[in-house]
Specification:
The chain is α+β, with helices and mostly antiparallel strands and 75 residues long. It is 33% helix and 12% strand. A hairpin with a 2-residue loop joins strand 1 and strand 2.
Length: 75
């Protein structure tokens, strides 16, 4: 889902995947990043420790880009 949205809106998508234990270290908490699974857009944590639907993610991307959310993606 994320790479496809990155192409659609011409935005950079970074996907980080680590073993679960890596997210539970003091060093990770010092980075002030969300608990996985998480989605961030432009530094804003959209969801932490859960999942979002594609329409929800797409609507957030559109809001951050200052563009109208496609009618089919409104949540």
């Amino acid at each position: 889902m994320m790479p496809r949205l990155g192409e659609k809106y011409d935005v950079e998508i970074e996907i980080i995947s680590k073993p679960r234990a890596d997210y539970q270290t003091d060093a990770y908490f010092d980075l002030d990043l969300p608990v996985a699974p998480a989605i961030m857009v432009d530094g804003e944590i959209l969801i932490e420790g859960g999942n979002m639907s594609q329409p929800e993610v797409e609507a957030c991307i559109c809001r951050h880009l200052g563009i109208t959310v496609p009618e089919s993606q409104k949540v």
